Amino acid sequence: MKYIRYAFWTLLALAFVIVALANRNVVTVSLLPQGLGDLIGFNISLTMPLFLILGGAIATGLLLGLVWEWLRERGYRKDATAARAEADNLKTQITRERASGVPVVQRDDDVLALVDGPNVSR
Q1: Alpha-carbon distance 71 to 75, whole Å?
Q2: Which domain of life is it from (predicted)?
Q3: What stretches in the chain show pLDDT beneath 70?
Q4: CA torsion, points 7, 9, 12, 17, in degrees to nearest 10?
Q5: From CA 108, how far away is CA 35, in angstroms rounded?
Q6: How far apart are CA 3 and CA 92, in angstroms?
Q7: Which residue from 72, 67, 120, 114 is spatially nearest to 97, judged by alpha carbons?
Q8: 104 vs 115: CA distance, rounded Å
Q9: Which residues of 21-43 are buried (b: 16+ CB within 10 A; e: fewer)?
Q10: What separation in angstroms does the CA of 97 have from each of 82, 100, 102, 111, 116?
Q11: Element (H or E) spanning 113, and its range?
Q12: What is the pLDDT of residues 99-119, one digit of tens each?
């Protein structure tokens, strides 16, 4: 499986290099259309190779998607943290009760008897 991952990343890098070599032309990217920029008196423009623009657009899209998903899943992370804290609490309580010698499981509860183990007599 590791080799498949390496092959995938190698092919992806090769594809990026091929696209970069095919799009070496220098282009000018402007923030606003020419008429609107002249009207406002403010227009930012950059001149760079096209493959940098394509790579920047892909990287920006990936970063925005990552942030979007991280923000969307914050409720799940919060619930998981609360469940983990509750499970730790219950484990501590069970350990404390077992150490005190008090039977944790009542004799008529089959499910808890299975969870507690063979120490419980029926």
Answers
A1: 9
A2: Bacteria
A3: 102-110, 112-113, 116-122
A4: -100
A5: 84
A6: 44
A7: 120
A8: 10
A9: eeeeeeeeeeeeeeeeeeeeeee
A10: 23, 5, 6, 18, 12
A11: helix 110-116
A12: 887 665 555 666 766 776 665
Tokens, residue 77: 């992370």
Helical spans, DSSP H, in 23-103: 34-40, 50-72, 74-100
* 121 torsion bin: left (phi>0), alpha (psi -120 to 50), beta (else): beta
Q: How many CA atoms lie within 13 A of 18 on its CB side?
A: 6
Distance, CA of 18 to CA of 92 (rounded, Å):
59
Q: How far apart are CA 105 and CA 116, in angstroms?
A: 7
Q: 3-state DSSP call for residue 45?
A: strand
